[in-house]
Design brief:
Largest sheet: 5 strands, antiparallel
Shape: elongated
Strand content: 15-25%
Structural class: alpha+beta
Distance between the termini: 101 Å
Helix content: 40-55%
Strand order of the largest sheet: 3-2-7-1-8
């Protein structure tokens, strides 16, 4: 078995001769190609060589200028795309801010939950109006009372001892949720002589808690405009 393997990989005189011949042929082919290329250049006059080099330089300059132009166009396209994307994002943020302000979308965020228990029916509707106003002054971004969204056009009235938020009747216990800076809103409501102190002095029980996440699911109805139209 070992003898058979050695016989396969041994170099015979015939193999060596073939290898030398192949190498010689390849050498002559490469030499001939190189001589032909040199001959082509050698056959050119000095003026033709100068013209050839000028053509090469011109082509290099054209390609360089084309690359600069394409690079500038690419940068302009990228800049325009970035500007349009930024404008679209700003418009989307403004639209969402208007929706939150109008109260037409549910919202969630840091805030307060205030619970008022008025077992004796001694809480006037004006106290709820003052409470909402204090929250707005403390930069509350969204408010609801007993699952009724409170926005700029919301009315809180009391008729014959019954309290209404817009046209929705609400009764004790009152749950007010407000989203915003919870510390700022708590300070505004709990200050000595403030609205919560005034409500407690009338008899109702109040409880205020700060929450990391307050959810307001109620939404306000969009008004119907009959006369007002956008101006051109």
């Amino acid at each position: 078995m070992a003898d058979r393997t050695r016989s396969k990989i041994s170099v015979t005189p015939m193999n060596l001769l073939i290898a030398i011949l192949v190498g010689t042929v390849i050498f002559f082919i490469v030499s001939a190609m190189r001589q032909e290329q040199e001959a082509n250049l050698d056959s050119l006059s000095e003026a033709e060589l100068v013209r050839l080099f000028d053509d090469v330089d011109s082509r290099i300059t054209e390609l360089t200028n084309e690359r600069v132009t394409l690079q500038r166009e690419l940068e302009e396209l990228q800049s325009g795309a970035d500007t349009r994307a930024a404008a679209a994002e700003a418009a989307a943020q403004q639209e969402m801010a208007r929706k939150i302000q109008a109260g037409v979308v549910p919202v969630v965020g840091e805030g307060l939950e205030i619970r008022i228990v008025d077992a004796g029916g001694q809480l006037p509707g004006q106290s709820l109006v003052s409470l909402v106003q204090e929250l707005r002054n403390a930069a509350a971004e969204a408010i609801e009372i007993n699952d009724v969204r409170v926005v700029g056009r919301t009315s809180i009235v009391q008729r014959e001892g019954v309290t209404y938020v817009n046209d929705t009747q609400i009764t004790s216990p009152y749950t007010i949720r407000a989203i915003g800076d919870s510390n700022m809103m708590q300070v505004a409501l709990e200050m000595p002589g403030g609205i919560l102190a005034t409500i407690r002095s009338r008899g109702p029980f109040t409880n205020l808690t700060q929450e990391e996440s307050v959810e307001i699911h109620s939404v306000a109805e969009l008004p119907t405009f009959t006369h007002a139209q956008p101006s051109n």
